[in-house]
Specification:
By secondary structure, this protein is mainly alpha-helical. It has helices spanning about 5-15, 20-35, 35-50, 50-90, 90-105, 105-120, 120-135, 135-150, 150-160, 165-185, 200-215, 220-255, 265-280, 290-325, 325-345, 350-365, 375-405. The longest helix is centred in the N-terminal third of the chain and has 39 residues, at about 50-90. The relative contact order is 0.03. Mean pLDDT is about 85; it is low at about 1-15 and about 395-409.
């Protein structure tokens, strides 16, 4: 049996005669680095001489790479599934680990948040605004709580904002104007100005509705249909209002006779008018119930303004005509009224004012005035007074002209 010392010496001699694998790899790397062009040319020549073998080797390499990627994907999927099940089964430990990691890595978390915010600023702001708009009461509560906790910080922010002279002067002028307005309203016996302060959530909601309205691709055709419908409805009612109301009165009376529930005459009038106008239009497919209701409201307002104007003009003509026809009687009554006022130590009133007043008292009730207001009646009296005064002055001017006209002889 050999001596162990001799066996160790033989083994050491063998290792010394055969270099290690690391030395062989280092020599190979040095050779490749020094002969890159030569190796590349040899590979290109071998591939051109053995194209089928090169393609077969390439396919084998790609199959092995695809199989390796598939195995790695399966391993990752199993790992994700296992991690998901573990998180679902150990929610408390997961939450505790996350809190502990965040507490130990505050700087990393802050850096991550800042980097993400810089890259996705608009998305982050939009999500935050959506959360605030979803629960405005909670947002107000959080804002109040922050203000209570950070009074010094809030005062510092206000000081920084007012450090700009222009902003500070603008705030002073706005506050002074508000105080002047409040004092003026108080002296006039009027209530204070009522202001509805729109919140940021309300402004964003209005902006979203406006964007949805104006960016709707069907909006131009919709507006065209609504405009044509509203104008056609107004034109039809101005032209056929009386006839439409006769039809509606007859319809309401017939319903009452047969015991059906009563309906409004205006509802019948506009329902029939909408039906007629819609049948005459080429397209009404984009109109909604709100559009029809808005067109009816606009037409109703236009009809009322037209009726008011007609009643106003008719009342003026009737008062002036009645005053002219009964001018002698009205003058006598006006003179008697002024004499009575003189006896009561009251100032006299111009004759034309009393004549118009007497004429209006007799005319009211003969002409429709249901659309007129008190201000309209005062305007009628003022205009009629001007007409009556001009007619009363005409005879006196003619007499003065005859007096001052030189005679023919």
């Amino acid at each position: 049996m050999n001596d162990p010392s001799e066996e160790g010496a033989v083994l050491h001699k063998g290792l010394a005669e055969h270099p290690s694998l690391d030395e062989e790899a280092e020599k190979r790397r040095q050779y490749v680095a020094a002969n890159r062009d030569r190796i590349r040319e040899m590979n290109r020549r071998w591939r051109s001489e053995h194209l089928d073998r090169a393609r077969e080797l390439n396919r084998d390499s790609m199959r092995r790479a695809a199989a390796r990627r598939h195995r790695e994907a399966e391993v990752r999927a199993r790992g994700r599934e296992w991690a998901k099940r573990w998180r679902e089964e150990h929610l408390d430990r997961k939450r505790e680990y996350q809190q502990r990691w965040v507490a130990e890595n505050r700087e990393k978390v802050r850096e991550y948040y800042n980097r993400y915010y810089e890259a996705h600023r608009d998305e982050v702001n939009a999500r935050a605004a959506a959360r605030r708009d979803a629960d405005p009461e909670r947002t107000k509560q959080i804002t109040r709580q922050w203000a209570e906790r950070n009074k010094e910080r809030r005062a510092e922010l206000q000081r920084d904002r007012r450090s700009d002279p222009e902003i500070y002067q603008a705030e002073l002028e706005a506050n002074a104007a508000a105080r002047r307005l409040k004092r003026s309203l108080s002296r006039a016996g009027l209530p204070p100005k009522r202001i509805h302060v729109a919140t940021a959530a309300e402004r964003r909601a209005d902006e979203r509705e406006a964007d949805a309205y104006f960016n709707d691709p069907s909006r131009p055709e919709h507006l065209r249909q609504f405009t044509v419908f509203a104008e056609s409805l107004t034109e039809h009612m101005l032209k056929n209002d009386a006839r439409m109301r006769e039809f509606a009165d007859a319809y309401v009376s017939s319903r009452a006779r047969i015991g059906l529930p009563p309906v409004s005459v205006d509802d019948v009038v506009y329902a029939r008018a909408v039906e007629i106008v819609a049948e005459r239009m080429r397209r009404v497919d984009l109109l909604t119930g709100r559009d029809v209701a808005a067109a009816v409201r606009a037409t109703t307002a236009m009809i009322r303004r037209e009726e008011r104007q007609q009643q106003f003009e008719r009342l003026i003509r009737t008062v002036v005509t009645h005053a002219h026809r009964n001018s002698a009687r009205f003058r006598v009554d006006a003179e008697m009224d002024n004499q009575a006022r003189t006896h009561r130590v009251k100032p006299r009133v111009p004759v034309e004012s009393l004549v118009v007043q007497l004429a209006m008292q007799e005319v009211f009730g003969r002409v429709p005035t249901n659309r007129l207001t008190i201000d309209d009646a005062r305007s009628v009296a003022r205009v009629a007074k001007q007409h009556v005064a001009m007619s009363f002055q005409a005879p006196a001017d003619a007499v003065d002209e005859r007096i001052h006209r030189p005679s023919a002889g």
